[in-house]
From TrEMBL:
It comes from the Bacteria. Belongs to the pyrroline-5-carboxylate reductase family. This is Pyrroline-5-carboxylate reductase. InterPro entries: 6-PGluconate_DH-like_C_sf, NAD(P)-bd_dom_sf, P5C_Rdtase_cat_N, P5CR_dimer, Pyrroline-COOH_reductase. Residues 4-99 form the Pyrroline-5-carboxylate reductase catalytic N-terminal domain. Pathway: Amino-acid biosynthesis; L-proline biosynthesis; L-proline from L-glutamate 5-semialdehyde: step 1/1. It catalyses: L-proline + NAD(+) = (S)-1-pyrroline-5-carboxylate + NADH + 2 H(+); L-proline + NADP(+) = (S)-1-pyrroline-5-carboxylate + NADPH + 2 H(+). Its EC number is 1.5.1.2. The gene is proC. It comes from Psychrobacillus faecigallinarum. Catalyzes the reduction of 1-pyrroline-5-carboxylate (PCA) to L-proline. Keywords: Amino-acid biosynthesis, Cytoplasm, NADP, Oxidoreductase, Proline biosynthesis. One of its GO terms (molecular function) is pyrroline-5-carboxylate reductase activity. The lineage of its organism: Bacteria, Bacillati, Bacillota, Bacilli, Bacillales.
Length: 270
């Protein structure tokens, strides 16, 4: 992938660009970014990453090997209409737009190789959990190249497109849910006399350690919980309150609402 064009210059585009360059997957000269209106952001990206900005749309897209669609969902259709006539037939399109299906993108950009990826904001530190799917026009060589590029921002899981809505709810939006839990645990600890700094550091390390235990995969989450929960102990008292307040139901409702919103966003374009 020698020529990469980003349509959109927001936080996710920057995270991918940062990962590609830090992992030396491509050189700055091979990346071009165009954005509809935010020239300040474009100049920021140019200054920080030494990439090309505000490139001539026609020339850049005709030369592009890979095009990332990284605009907001509300701008997706108009952007596809504007670039359709300039794209060369061999260019691979990778969409990071939530909710917009490959079929919808094909209806505007034609019969070409198209992939969808759902990263999350942890891409900015190289720790994204990214789900990836594609149409039948993506050959095996291209599949490997796309995965290789996306691994610069974290892990990549190839999935069926039908699962992208729930994946959007789980890992796409997931960091926000964990930050919300961090807010509440921190506030509760401060209420009981702990300093905010100590509460934050202890909770961050607790999340890090728990995540590592899950990653080891030696025990199921329920078994890990059981091992921490001594009968009649402090953990049991806390778990009982979580159950009493139906936190499990709240989590199910959270995922259900988020995946339904993803479906609704997609239906607007079909």
């Amino acid at each position: 992938m020698t020529n990469i064009v980003f349509i959109g210059a927001g936080s996710m585009a920057e995270a991918i660009i940062k990962g590609l360059l830090e992992e030396e997957k491509v050189s700055p000269s091979s990346i071009c970014v165009m954005n509809k209106s935010d020239e300040k952001q474009l100049h920021y990206l140019n200054a920080k990453y030494k990439i090309e900005i505000m490139c001539t749309k026609k020339l850049a897209l005709q030369k592009a090997d890979l095009v990332f669609l990284a605009m907001k969902p509300k701008d997706a259709i108009q952007a596809c209409k504007e670039i359709a006539s300039f794209l060369n037939k061999q260019a691979i399109v990778v969409s990071v737009i939530a909710g917009v299906s490959i079929k919808t993108i094909e209806s505007y950009l034609g019969d070409r190789p198209i992939a969808r990826v759902m990263p999350n904001t942890s891409a900015s530190v190289g720790l994204s959990a990214s789900a990836l799917c594609w149409n039948e026009k993506i050959n095996n060589v291209a599949k490997k190249e796309i995965i290789n590029l996306l691994e610069s921002i974290g892990t990549v899981k190839v999935v069926q497109e039908v699962d992208m809505h729930v994946i959007t709810a789980l890992s796409g939006s997931g960091p926000a849910y964990l930050y919300y839990f961090a807010e509440q645990f921190e506030a509760a600890a401060v209420q009981h006399g702990l300093s905010q700094e100590d509460a934050r550091q202890l909770f961050i390390q607790t999340m890090k350690g728990a995540a590592y235990m899950l990653m080891k995969g030696e025990d199921e989450p329920a078994e890990l919980r059981r091992k921490v929960t001594s009968p009649g102990g402090t953990t049991e008292a806390g778990i009982e309150q979580l159950m009493f307040h139906k936190v499990d139901e709240a989590i199910f409702a959270c995922i259900s609402a988020a995946q339904q919103k993803s479906r609704t966003l997609g239906e607007q374009f079909e």
